[in-house]
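We modelled the chain as a single entity of 340 amino acids. Its sequence is:
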Amino acid sequence: MKRGLVIQTAFLGDVILALPLVQVLKKSIEESQVDFLAIPETSEILKSHPDISQVIVYDKHGKHNSVSAFLDLRAGLRKRVYDYVICPHRSLRSALLASGTRAKIRVGFDRSASKRSFTHVMPWKFGMHEVERNLSLLRPLGIDAGREEPKIFPASVNRDEAARFLAEHGIEPPYAVVAPGTVWKTKQYPLEMMAQVVRGLSGRFTKVVLIGGKKDAEPAGSFTNISGNVVSAIGEFPFMSSAEMIRHASLLVAHDSAPIHVASAFNVPTVAIFGPTVTDFGFYPYHKKSRVVEVPGLGCRPCSIHGGDHCPIGTFECMRWIPPEEVLSAGLELLENRNG
């Protein structure tokens, strides 16, 4: 039996887009066992995936924060005796964890903070979707992967939780889901403009469901006052229960963030609002039933690969120049094409 490890210790969206690595490995290597190393905040989405043998949690801001704890984790990985390690994350710590396994084959990108940690280095190509870029890391294993979309498997507790919420609020298809918050503030469409989008959707769907974590709770009150058709689940559930709500939705409106990748996994029509980031970074929705709404030709875009807390030039034109009507129109166009 071949034993492998995938290391992705970045954000939730990054982990979702790394899932095709595991899926292809399981299909391509007979009797393979693939483990996945991730941070606590993203481990939930991995635990119910049937292609992942074991989830190894790297708590880099908690119990593994010290040098000694990090070295203990490295030593523990070495004892697992991996045949190969695939590391799409480009941080120094992820690279050091990969090298610590002493696996015969260790593959990473040429933009890694420690290329020397790998036995094989692949080019990180701008303009390529992250899923395809990640899958290129399998070539040193003799695997030339075709298209592979991420698959997400909400656990029964998440399915039950979502079903209960939908039933209690009388929510039946067709309903829309809106994720108004993001980790990075400059990626967030202005709340007053998103409220206009929600208002427009509320007149066209049986319900509009708002999702997000507890940190996104601020806008929930003002949005639910828009219409009796708007229901907030923000801060109510773990991410995988929100994912289950996306799964049964007729439309998702969100930013350059994890929910758009969930929608891709479930083939849900998606409008993705892009401000400081651009699609050439490779994190746009990975399915055809999607539209990216952005301001093309703006000289200050992109200002960073992640966004930030403040607009560097103080104008926030990349978001403020996107009319709510354009976001709404993109969503309705997707629905017409789906029903046509």
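As a brief sanity check on the tokenised model: The mean pLDDT is 93. The chain has twelve helices and twelve strands.
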